[in-house]
Amino acid sequence: MSKIKDEMPVLVRHEGDWIGTYTTVDNDGNVLDRNESHLTCQFPKNKEHSYFQINRYKWADGKYQEYQFPGIYRDKKLWFDTERIEGHAWEANDSLIILYFNYKDIPNAYIHEMIHISPCNNPRARTWHWFKHDEIYQRTLIKEERKR
Asked: pLDDT tens, position by position, for the chain (148 residues)?
């Protein structure tokens, strides 16, 4: 982990559990979906993956989903290639990570995500900009707090 710790210190600040809300809106700001979230960000020692994230989502109607995202660190970026997504993340400055990814089951679409962590490492804000055929069609707004 020392190389990722040295070269991606902002990413390392995200280690731990995060509780929040995802709200997806269309281009006019109409709410398309809203759900609660619990994400766990880990840096496993002596494992195949440099990074491991578990995303848990829960909706008001009782629907529940859970996904695992192992990541590989190389070239000062974190790379993902799972059954669900592929993409990579990099640090833009001392509080911001940019993630580019696509869902493998949504053709001609991709997402740019901005992840901002506060200087105190407690709250973070994330936005997903969804593009299809290079045109934005929705956004996901995410507000999270570190679980204590």
From this structure: 568 889 999 999 999 999 999 999 999 999 999 999 999 999 998 778 999 999 999 999 999 999 999 999 999 999 999 999 999 999 999 999 999 999 999 999 999 999 999 999 999 999 999 999 999 999 999 999 999 7
Report phi then psi at 65, rounded to 5.
-135, 145
Distance in angstroms (rounded) separating the CA atoms of residues 21 and 54: 15
Residue 81 · residue 101 · CB < 8 Å = no
57-67: b (≥16 Cβ within 10 Å) or e:
beeeeeeeeee
Residue with tokens 């909706």: 59
**d(Cα 144, Cα 17) in Å, to the nearest integer?**
10
- Between CA 30 and CA 98, with CA 34 as vertex, the angle to 5 degrees is 90
Residue 141, C-beta contacts closer than 8 angstroms, at least 6 positions apart? 22, 23, 24, 25, 126, 127
